[in-house]
Amino acid sequence: MAGGLTRRGFLLGTSGVVLALAAAACSSGDGESGGSSGATVSDKYGETVVPANPQRVASVGYNDQDAILALGVVPVGVFDWYGNQPDATWPWAHDLLGGAHPTIIGTANTGISVEKVASTNPDLILGTYSGVTQTEHDKLSALAPTVTQPKEFADYGVPWQDQTRIVGKALGRSDKADALVASVQKKFTDVSAAHPEFQGKTVIVGALKGPGQFGVYGPEDPKVRFFTELGFVNPPVTQQITDTNFAPISTEQLTLANADLLVWYAGGGFGDKLRAELAATPVYGELPAVKEGRVIILEDEAAEAMTWSTVLSLPYALDKIPPRIAPLLTK
Predict the structure, then answer these.
(1) Which residues does UniProt call coiled coil (predicted)?
(2) Radius of gyration of the chain from Cα atoms?
(3) Which end of the chain has the least Cβ crowding within 10 Å, N or C?
(4) Cα–Cα dist 264/298, whole Å
(5) What CA–CA distance (Å, rounded) separates 277 from 192?
(6) For the packed helices 160-171 and 174-194, what is the interaxial angle rounded to 10 degrees?
(7) Half-sphere exposure of 147 (CA within 13 A, CB side)
């Protein structure tokens, strides 16, 4: 789950949708700026009565701070997924911090630090895009009402629409959440309509797991959903991945990793390593998708925006990635 380096502010001015989302996040025109909630929100471990008008929200999910910020709330603590972004927040969301510097309450390498979460004195803890365990949930719930990953999806598999609405409900800003979802969903619809060549084509998204080891992402992974929302479909080999978002495959199994479009995610500077491993794997070169040039390696900021898959990051990914893959399917 590592990510790549990026330039500060690379997204500013590149997408009208992003600017619209930021404006929506700061607006109080829907009458919900007070955040009066007191709702009951469900997650994998049960139901939680959240506080009305939460003031100190700790974000323990890998990317939950995006939805929280998009809804106009600045978290007091955030999880550091990548380890190379100021305040653990990417440029598409960083300006919404308004100069605040949330406490880093955990990293992808160390996990959540309950002690650091406690130090933020939260009145609400959110972590919908996560793999929080029952033990962690119990410890966090002892600090404040806690809402983590929903039971309907695999860990790290909550769709961005559901994530935004869950966070919106917890913050008492459901109307804003619905508006944000509708705005990004329209962009998906528009991009999909502009690319009829995507419709019904199979896609596999893979990654390098280790030396000589590869893996593919399942239907519930956000990167896969990015493509299926554009009209692609999952082939049988990935439809079998149901209890996780990523499954390792052996070199021999690479023969099954064939589709109309083969996408390799190589964020975090893994592009060169991936290319070397693929070049050293003869069976890979025999795949029809490889022979016919229907392969792309995504490793830049657009790849990270797709991976984060939030209401703030997706507009950028939608601007950048479809134009790159369209030529591969229209040769």
Answers:
(1) none
(2) 20
(3) C
(4) 6
(5) 33
(6) 160
(7) 27
- State residue 210's pLDDT score: 76
Q: Over pLDDT 70: what percentage of the chain?
A: 85
CB atoms within 10 A of CB 118: 17
3-state secondary structure string across the chain: CCCCCCCCCCCCCCCHHHHHHHHHHHCCCCCCCCCCCCCEEEECCEEEECCCCCCCEEECCCCHHHHHHHCCCCCCEEEECCCCCHHHCCHHHHHHHCCCCCEEEEECCCEECHHHHHHCCCCEEEECCCCCCHHHHHHHHCCCCEEECCCCCCCCCCCHHHHHHHHHHHHCCHHHHHHHHHHHHHHHHHHHHHCHHHCCCEEEEEEEEECCEEEEECCCCHHHHHHHCCCCECCHHHHCCCCCCEEEECCHHHHHCCCCEEEEECCCCCHHHHHHHHHCCHHHHCCHHHHCCCEEEECCHHHHHHHHCCCCCHHHHHHHCHHHHHHHHCC
Q: How far is CA 67 from the centre of its chain?
A: 10
Q: Report the C-alpha gap between 58 and 76 in whole angstroms.
A: 5
Q: Which residue, 84, 76, 62, 98, is CA-closest to 313?
A: 62
Residue range 277-313, pLDDT digits in tens: 999 988 888 889 999 999 999 999 899 999 999 999 9
> What residue has token string 């990293």?
107
- The two three-digit tokens of residue 255, written as one number: 């023969």
Q: Alpha-carbon distance 327 to 261, whole Å?
A: 11
Using 50, 70 and 90 to split pLDDT, how confident is the model at 241? low
d(CA 101, CA 38): 27
What is the average per-residue pLDDT within 25-52? 70
Amino acid 118 reads A
- Average pLDDT of the chain to the nearest whole number: 86
**Higher per-residue pLDDT: 242 or 18:** 242
